[in-house]
Amino acid sequence: MKKALITGVTGQDGSYLAELLIKKNYEIFGMVRMSSVNNLARIKHLINNKNFHILYGDMTDEASIYRCVNESNPDEIYNLAGQSHVGLSNNFSEYTTEVNALGVLRLINVINSLNLTNKVKLYQAITSDIFGNIEDNILNEKTTIKPINPYACAKAYAYMLTRNYRERGMFIVNGIAFAHESNRRPEKFVTRKITKAAVRIKYGKQEKLELGNLSVKRDWGHAQDYVKAMYLSMQQEKSDDYVFATGITTSLRDFCKKVFKEVGIELEFVGEGNNEKAYNKQNGKLVIEINPLFSRKNEKLNPVGDYSKAKKNLGWEPIITIDQIIKEMVSTDLIEER
Ligand code: NAP
User: Fold this and answer.
1) Which of 5, 103, 336, 337 is the most exposed place for a label (fewest CB within 10 A)?
2) What is the pLDDT of residues 20-38, one digit of tens each?
Protein backbone atom coordinates (compact mmCIF):
# COMPACT_ATOMS: atom_id res chain seq x y z
CA MET A 1 0.00 0.00 0.00
CA LYS A 2 1.45 3.39 -1.04
CA LYS A 3 1.61 6.18 1.54
CA ALA A 4 0.94 9.83 0.74
CA LEU A 5 1.36 12.95 2.86
CA ILE A 6 -0.99 15.75 1.79
CA THR A 7 -0.33 19.24 3.12
CA GLY A 8 -3.37 21.50 2.82
CA VAL A 9 -5.65 18.47 3.18
CA THR A 10 -8.39 20.61 4.76
CA GLY A 11 -8.56 22.80 1.63
CA GLN A 12 -10.56 22.41 -1.58
CA ASP A 13 -7.92 20.47 -3.53
CA GLY A 14 -6.49 18.57 -0.56
CA SER A 15 -9.88 17.14 0.38
CA TYR A 16 -10.62 15.98 -3.19
CA LEU A 17 -7.12 14.54 -3.55
CA ALA A 18 -7.48 12.60 -0.28
CA GLU A 19 -10.75 11.10 -1.59
CA LEU A 20 -9.11 10.13 -4.87
CA LEU A 21 -6.06 8.53 -3.23
CA ILE A 22 -8.20 6.58 -0.76
CA LYS A 23 -10.08 5.12 -3.75
CA LYS A 24 -6.69 4.19 -5.19
CA ASN A 25 -5.89 2.29 -1.99
CA TYR A 26 -3.34 4.71 -0.51
CA GLU A 27 -2.75 5.28 3.17
CA ILE A 28 -3.17 9.04 3.62
CA PHE A 29 -1.56 11.35 6.14
CA GLY A 30 -3.11 14.80 6.05
CA MET A 31 -1.30 17.77 7.55
CA VAL A 32 -3.73 19.96 9.49
CA ARG A 33 -2.78 23.23 11.13
CA MET A 34 -3.81 24.42 14.55
CA SER A 35 -7.05 26.37 14.53
CA SER A 36 -9.39 27.64 17.24
CA VAL A 37 -12.35 26.91 14.96
CA ASN A 38 -13.26 23.69 13.16
CA ASN A 39 -11.18 23.54 9.97
CA LEU A 40 -12.05 19.89 9.24
CA ALA A 41 -15.38 20.48 7.47
CA ARG A 42 -14.16 19.37 4.04
CA ILE A 43 -12.61 16.14 5.35
CA LYS A 44 -15.13 15.18 8.04
CA HIS A 45 -16.33 12.22 5.93
CA LEU A 46 -12.76 10.85 5.81
CA ILE A 47 -11.82 11.12 9.46
CA ASN A 48 -13.08 7.66 10.44
CA ASN A 49 -11.53 5.94 7.44
CA LYS A 50 -8.88 3.50 8.69
CA ASN A 51 -6.49 4.63 5.93
CA PHE A 52 -6.77 8.33 6.76
CA HIS A 53 -4.70 9.95 9.52
CA ILE A 54 -4.37 13.53 10.68
CA LEU A 55 -0.97 14.96 11.60
CA TYR A 56 -0.68 18.46 13.02
CA GLY A 57 1.80 20.74 11.30
CA ASP A 58 2.35 24.16 9.83
CA MET A 59 4.38 25.18 6.77
CA THR A 60 5.89 28.05 8.77
CA ASP A 61 7.35 25.65 11.35
CA GLU A 62 10.11 23.34 10.09
CA ALA A 63 10.11 21.10 13.18
CA SER A 64 6.43 20.34 12.65
CA ILE A 65 7.01 19.55 8.97
CA TYR A 66 9.86 17.26 10.02
CA ARG A 67 7.54 15.40 12.38
CA CYS A 68 4.83 15.00 9.73
CA VAL A 69 7.27 13.63 7.13
CA ASN A 70 9.08 11.42 9.63
CA GLU A 71 5.88 9.93 11.09
CA SER A 72 4.24 9.32 7.73
CA ASN A 73 7.37 8.13 5.88
CA PRO A 74 5.53 8.76 2.59
CA ASP A 75 6.17 7.55 -0.95
CA GLU A 76 4.50 10.70 -2.27
CA ILE A 77 4.08 14.19 -0.81
CA TYR A 78 1.52 16.57 -2.28
CA ASN A 79 2.31 20.08 -1.08
CA LEU A 80 -1.02 21.85 -1.49
CA ALA A 81 -0.78 23.99 1.66
CA GLY A 82 -0.84 27.64 0.78
CA GLN A 83 -2.18 31.08 1.46
CA SER A 84 -4.21 30.76 -1.72
CA HIS A 85 -5.87 34.16 -2.08
CA VAL A 86 -4.24 36.58 -4.56
CA GLY A 87 -5.96 39.73 -3.27
CA LEU A 88 -5.24 38.99 0.38
CA SER A 89 -1.57 38.34 -0.42
CA ASN A 90 -1.24 42.14 -0.60
CA ASN A 91 -2.46 42.39 3.01
CA PHE A 92 -0.35 39.44 4.19
CA SER A 93 2.64 39.60 1.87
CA GLU A 94 5.19 38.38 4.43
CA TYR A 95 2.99 35.52 5.65
CA THR A 96 2.15 34.53 2.05
CA THR A 97 5.88 34.34 1.31
CA GLU A 98 6.53 32.36 4.52
CA VAL A 99 3.99 29.70 3.55
CA ASN A 100 4.04 29.63 -0.25
CA ALA A 101 7.77 30.17 -0.79
CA LEU A 102 9.79 29.38 2.33
CA GLY A 103 7.40 26.60 3.32
CA VAL A 104 8.47 24.75 0.17
CA LEU A 105 12.15 25.26 1.02
CA ARG A 106 11.52 23.93 4.54
CA LEU A 107 9.78 20.86 3.12
CA ILE A 108 12.65 20.13 0.72
CA ASN A 109 15.19 20.60 3.54
CA VAL A 110 13.23 18.12 5.67
CA ILE A 111 13.09 15.56 2.85
CA ASN A 112 16.85 15.85 2.41
CA SER A 113 17.67 15.76 6.11
CA LEU A 114 15.61 12.55 6.51
CA ASN A 115 17.59 11.01 3.62
CA LEU A 116 14.39 10.62 1.59
CA THR A 117 15.80 12.52 -1.41
CA ASN A 118 15.87 9.47 -3.68
CA LYS A 119 12.78 7.81 -2.26
CA VAL A 120 10.03 10.37 -1.99
CA LYS A 121 8.15 12.02 -4.87
CA LEU A 122 7.01 15.61 -4.35
CA TYR A 123 4.12 17.42 -6.05
CA GLN A 124 4.23 21.21 -5.71
CA ALA A 125 1.12 23.33 -6.33
CA ILE A 126 2.11 26.28 -8.54
CA THR A 127 -0.31 28.71 -10.17
CA SER A 128 -0.86 30.23 -13.61
CA ASP A 129 -0.59 33.58 -11.80
CA ILE A 130 3.23 33.22 -12.06
CA PHE A 131 2.82 34.34 -15.71
CA GLY A 132 1.40 37.70 -14.67
CA ASN A 133 0.49 40.25 -17.28
CA ILE A 134 2.67 39.09 -20.17
CA GLU A 135 1.76 39.63 -23.81
CA ASP A 136 1.17 36.03 -24.89
CA ASN A 137 -2.45 34.97 -24.72
CA ILE A 138 -2.05 31.21 -24.69
CA LEU A 139 0.09 30.18 -21.74
CA ASN A 140 2.09 26.98 -21.37
CA GLU A 141 5.20 25.57 -19.69
CA LYS A 142 7.45 27.68 -21.98
CA THR A 143 5.77 30.99 -21.17
CA THR A 144 7.90 33.66 -19.45
CA ILE A 145 7.34 34.06 -15.73
CA LYS A 146 6.46 37.59 -14.68
CA PRO A 147 4.52 37.59 -11.38
CA ILE A 148 2.73 40.79 -10.39
CA ASN A 149 1.55 40.21 -6.81
CA PRO A 150 3.00 38.71 -3.59
CA TYR A 151 1.06 35.45 -4.05
CA ALA A 152 2.44 34.90 -7.55
CA CYS A 153 5.96 36.03 -6.54
CA ALA A 154 6.02 33.47 -3.72
CA LYS A 155 4.78 30.72 -6.08
CA ALA A 156 7.38 31.78 -8.67
CA TYR A 157 10.08 31.32 -6.02
CA ALA A 158 8.70 27.84 -5.24
CA TYR A 159 8.71 27.05 -8.97
CA MET A 160 12.36 28.08 -9.44
CA LEU A 161 13.42 26.30 -6.25
CA THR A 162 11.76 23.00 -7.12
CA ARG A 163 13.18 23.07 -10.65
CA ASN A 164 16.60 23.60 -9.13
CA TYR A 165 16.24 20.62 -6.79
CA ARG A 166 14.88 18.51 -9.66
CA GLU A 167 18.09 19.24 -11.55
CA ARG A 168 19.97 17.92 -8.51
CA GLY A 169 18.09 14.62 -8.80
CA MET A 170 14.89 14.97 -6.76
CA PHE A 171 11.55 13.84 -8.21
CA ILE A 172 9.46 17.04 -8.08
CA VAL A 173 6.43 17.80 -10.22
CA ASN A 174 5.25 21.39 -10.60
CA GLY A 175 1.54 21.65 -11.41
CA ILE A 176 0.96 25.11 -12.92
CA ALA A 177 -2.77 25.14 -12.39
CA PHE A 178 -5.30 27.61 -13.76
CA ALA A 179 -8.23 28.49 -11.48
CA HIS A 180 -10.36 25.53 -10.43
CA GLU A 181 -13.59 25.69 -8.51
CA SER A 182 -16.18 23.50 -6.81
CA ASN A 183 -18.80 23.68 -4.09
CA ARG A 184 -15.83 23.47 -1.66
CA ARG A 185 -14.49 26.86 -2.79
CA PRO A 186 -14.68 29.46 0.01
CA GLU A 187 -16.77 32.59 -0.46
CA LYS A 188 -13.76 34.90 -0.54
CA PHE A 189 -13.16 33.67 -4.13
CA VAL A 190 -15.16 35.45 -6.82
CA THR A 191 -16.98 32.41 -8.25
CA ARG A 192 -18.44 31.43 -4.88
CA LYS A 193 -19.11 35.05 -3.99
CA ILE A 194 -21.31 35.19 -7.12
CA THR A 195 -23.15 31.89 -6.59
CA LYS A 196 -23.83 32.74 -2.93
CA ALA A 197 -25.03 36.26 -3.82
CA ALA A 198 -27.32 35.03 -6.61
CA VAL A 199 -28.96 32.55 -4.25
CA ARG A 200 -29.29 35.11 -1.44
CA ILE A 201 -30.82 37.62 -3.88
CA LYS A 202 -33.30 34.95 -5.00
CA TYR A 203 -34.20 34.28 -1.35
CA GLY A 204 -34.48 38.05 -0.62
CA LYS A 205 -31.57 37.91 1.85
CA GLN A 206 -29.28 40.23 -0.17
CA GLU A 207 -30.05 43.19 -2.44
CA LYS A 208 -27.11 43.44 -4.78
CA LEU A 209 -23.63 42.22 -5.59
CA GLU A 210 -20.48 44.32 -6.10
CA LEU A 211 -17.79 43.08 -8.50
CA GLY A 212 -14.68 44.34 -10.30
CA ASN A 213 -14.08 44.37 -14.07
CA LEU A 214 -16.79 42.19 -15.69
CA SER A 215 -14.86 41.86 -18.95
CA VAL A 216 -11.99 39.79 -17.48
CA LYS A 217 -12.05 36.25 -18.77
CA ARG A 218 -10.91 33.25 -16.77
CA ASP A 219 -9.98 29.68 -17.63
CA TRP A 220 -12.05 27.91 -14.93
CA GLY A 221 -12.00 24.16 -14.36
CA HIS A 222 -13.26 21.80 -11.66
CA ALA A 223 -10.97 20.84 -8.73
CA GLN A 224 -11.84 17.14 -9.14
CA ASP A 225 -10.35 17.12 -12.64
CA TYR A 226 -7.23 18.91 -11.36
CA VAL A 227 -6.51 16.46 -8.52
CA LYS A 228 -6.62 13.65 -11.11
CA ALA A 229 -3.92 15.54 -13.01
CA MET A 230 -1.84 15.83 -9.81
CA TYR A 231 -2.07 12.09 -9.21
CA LEU A 232 -1.23 11.18 -12.83
CA SER A 233 1.78 13.50 -12.88
CA MET A 234 3.20 11.66 -9.85
CA GLN A 235 2.91 8.20 -11.46
CA GLN A 236 5.42 8.99 -14.23
CA GLU A 237 9.02 7.77 -14.52
CA LYS A 238 10.33 11.34 -14.70
CA SER A 239 9.12 14.47 -12.98
CA ASP A 240 8.32 17.59 -14.99
CA ASP A 241 6.36 20.85 -15.08
CA TYR A 242 2.76 20.74 -16.31
CA VAL A 243 0.12 23.34 -17.09
CA PHE A 244 -3.34 22.19 -15.99
CA ALA A 245 -6.12 24.18 -17.64
CA THR A 246 -9.29 23.80 -19.72
CA GLY A 247 -8.28 25.95 -22.70
CA ILE A 248 -11.71 27.63 -22.52
CA THR A 249 -12.37 31.04 -20.99
CA THR A 250 -15.55 32.66 -19.72
CA SER A 251 -15.94 36.35 -18.89
CA LEU A 252 -17.06 37.34 -15.42
CA ARG A 253 -20.15 38.88 -17.07
CA ASP A 254 -21.10 35.57 -18.74
CA PHE A 255 -20.35 33.68 -15.53
CA CYS A 256 -22.83 35.96 -13.71
CA LYS A 257 -25.45 35.50 -16.46
CA LYS A 258 -25.19 31.71 -16.19
CA VAL A 259 -25.30 31.71 -12.37
CA PHE A 260 -28.29 34.02 -12.12
CA LYS A 261 -30.09 32.05 -14.85
CA GLU A 262 -29.51 28.91 -12.79
CA VAL A 263 -31.39 30.50 -9.87
CA GLY A 264 -34.17 31.74 -12.21
CA ILE A 265 -33.08 35.37 -12.68
CA GLU A 266 -32.45 36.76 -16.19
CA LEU A 267 -29.91 39.60 -16.17
CA GLU A 268 -29.77 42.67 -18.38
CA PHE A 269 -26.41 44.48 -18.51
CA VAL A 270 -26.38 48.23 -19.13
CA GLY A 271 -23.44 50.69 -19.40
CA GLU A 272 -19.71 50.20 -19.67
CA GLY A 273 -16.56 50.00 -17.54
CA ASN A 274 -17.07 51.15 -13.96
CA ASN A 275 -20.59 52.31 -14.86
CA GLU A 276 -21.76 48.89 -15.97
CA LYS A 277 -24.75 47.54 -14.04
CA ALA A 278 -26.93 44.46 -14.24
CA TYR A 279 -30.68 44.49 -13.63
CA ASN A 280 -33.13 41.70 -12.92
CA LYS A 281 -35.16 41.61 -16.17
CA GLN A 282 -38.26 40.36 -14.37
CA ASN A 283 -38.59 43.10 -11.73
CA GLY A 284 -36.15 45.80 -12.95
CA LYS A 285 -34.15 45.75 -9.70
CA LEU A 286 -30.42 46.55 -9.72
CA VAL A 287 -28.53 43.37 -8.79
CA ILE A 288 -24.89 43.90 -9.86
CA GLU A 289 -22.76 47.03 -9.84
CA ILE A 290 -19.05 47.73 -10.16
CA ASN A 291 -16.83 48.54 -7.23
CA PRO A 292 -13.41 49.48 -8.70
CA LEU A 293 -11.78 48.29 -5.45
CA PHE A 294 -12.46 44.71 -6.61
CA SER A 295 -10.57 45.13 -9.90
CA ARG A 296 -6.99 43.86 -9.82
CA LYS A 297 -4.35 46.29 -11.09
CA ASN A 298 -2.39 45.32 -14.24
CA GLU A 299 -4.19 42.00 -14.51
CA LYS A 300 -4.23 40.11 -17.77
CA LEU A 301 -7.72 40.20 -19.25
CA ASN A 302 -7.86 36.89 -21.08
CA PRO A 303 -5.24 34.35 -20.01
CA VAL A 304 -5.94 30.88 -21.38
CA GLY A 305 -4.08 27.69 -20.56
CA ASP A 306 -2.56 25.28 -23.09
CA TYR A 307 -2.61 21.86 -21.41
CA SER A 308 -1.35 19.89 -24.45
CA LYS A 309 1.77 18.65 -22.63
CA ALA A 310 -0.34 17.15 -19.81
CA LYS A 311 -2.64 15.60 -22.43
CA LYS A 312 0.28 14.07 -24.35
CA ASN A 313 2.42 12.87 -21.40
CA LEU A 314 -0.25 12.07 -18.80
CA GLY A 315 -3.31 11.35 -20.94
CA TRP A 316 -5.09 14.00 -18.86
CA GLU A 317 -8.01 16.10 -20.02
CA PRO A 318 -10.49 18.13 -18.00
CA ILE A 319 -14.02 16.75 -18.25
CA ILE A 320 -16.26 18.93 -16.08
CA THR A 321 -17.63 21.98 -17.93
CA ILE A 322 -18.23 25.48 -16.60
CA ASP A 323 -22.01 24.88 -16.78
CA GLN A 324 -21.68 21.75 -14.63
CA ILE A 325 -19.48 23.62 -12.14
CA ILE A 326 -22.09 26.36 -11.84
CA LYS A 327 -24.92 23.84 -11.40
CA GLU A 328 -23.00 22.12 -8.59
CA MET A 329 -22.13 25.34 -6.76
CA VAL A 330 -25.61 26.82 -7.07
CA SER A 331 -27.40 23.66 -5.96
CA THR A 332 -25.19 23.52 -2.83
CA ASP A 333 -25.85 27.19 -2.10
CA LEU A 334 -29.60 26.77 -2.59
CA ILE A 335 -29.49 24.29 0.29
CA GLU A 336 -26.96 26.12 2.47
CA GLU A 337 -28.74 29.49 2.20
CA ARG A 338 -32.31 28.22 2.55
P1 NAP B 1 -7.41 26.33 -0.15
O2 NAP B 1 -8.76 25.75 -0.27
O3 NAP B 1 -7.25 27.74 0.29
O4 NAP B 1 -6.58 25.38 0.83
C5 NAP B 1 -5.32 25.77 1.31
C6 NAP B 1 -4.88 24.75 2.33
O7 NAP B 1 -3.60 25.16 2.86
C8 NAP B 1 -5.83 24.64 3.53
O9 NAP B 1 -5.86 23.28 3.95
C10 NAP B 1 -5.14 25.50 4.58
O11 NAP B 1 -5.47 25.15 5.91
C12 NAP B 1 -3.70 25.14 4.28
N13 NAP B 1 -2.74 26.08 4.84
C14 NAP B 1 -2.73 27.41 4.72
N15 NAP B 1 -1.69 27.93 5.40
C16 NAP B 1 -1.04 26.89 5.97
C17 NAP B 1 0.08 26.76 6.81
N18 NAP B 1 0.76 27.84 7.22
N19 NAP B 1 0.48 25.53 7.19
C20 NAP B 1 -0.22 24.43 6.81
N21 NAP B 1 -1.31 24.48 6.03
C22 NAP B 1 -1.72 25.70 5.62
O23 NAP B 1 -6.61 26.21 -1.54
P24 NAP B 1 -6.88 25.20 -2.76
O25 NAP B 1 -7.81 25.88 -3.70
O26 NAP B 1 -7.18 23.88 -2.24
O27 NAP B 1 -5.45 25.21 -3.46
C28 NAP B 1 -4.45 24.26 -3.10
C29 NAP B 1 -3.09 24.79 -3.52
O30 NAP B 1 -3.11 25.01 -4.95
C31 NAP B 1 -2.72 26.13 -2.89
O32 NAP B 1 -1.32 26.14 -2.67
C33 NAP B 1 -3.07 27.14 -3.97
O34 NAP B 1 -2.28 28.30 -3.87
C35 NAP B 1 -2.78 26.35 -5.23
N36 NAP B 1 -3.57 26.74 -6.41
C37 NAP B 1 -4.93 26.73 -6.33
C38 NAP B 1 -5.66 27.10 -7.45
C39 NAP B 1 -7.18 27.10 -7.42
O40 NAP B 1 -7.79 27.66 -8.34
N41 NAP B 1 -7.82 26.48 -6.44
C42 NAP B 1 -5.01 27.46 -8.65
C43 NAP B 1 -3.63 27.42 -8.68
C44 NAP B 1 -2.91 27.05 -7.56
P45 NAP B 1 -6.82 25.73 6.63
O46 NAP B 1 -7.95 24.87 6.10
O47 NAP B 1 -6.54 25.53 8.06
O48 NAP B 1 -6.95 27.17 6.21
Assistant:
1) 336
2) 999 999 999 999 999 999 9
Name the pTM for this structure: 0.98
Q: Is the CB of 59 under 6 A from ligand 1?
A: yes
Task: Tell me the pLDDT of the chain averaged across its residues.
Answer: 97
Q: Which helix (H) or strand (E) holds 277?
A: strand 277-280
| pLDDT tens-place string over residues 86-133 | 999 999 999 999 999 999 999 999 999 999 999 999 999 999 999 998
Query: Phi, psi (5° rounding) for residue 219?
Result: -95, 95
Q: How far is the CA of 14 from the centre of ligand 1 (A)?
A: 8
- 89 CA to middle of ligand 1, Å? 13
Q: Is 8 in the pocket of ligand 1 (CB under 6 A)?
A: yes
Ligand 1 atom closest to 10 (CA): 9
Name the residue of 13, 66, 320 whose CB sits within 8 Å of the most ligand 1 atoms, as the mutation to test its pocket: 13
Got the DSSP string for 33-80? ---SS---GGGTTTTT-TTEEEEE--TT-HHHHHHHHHHH--SEEEE-
Nearest residue (CA) to ligand 1, atom 20: 58
Q: Is 296 helix (H, G, I), strand (E, B) or coil?
A: coil
Q: Look at residue 301 and tell me whether its pLDDT is greater than 80.
A: no
Four-way CATH pick for 3-182+221-248+300-320: 3.30.200.20, 3.40.640.10, 3.40.50.300, 3.40.50.720? 3.40.50.720
d(CA 289, CA 146): 31
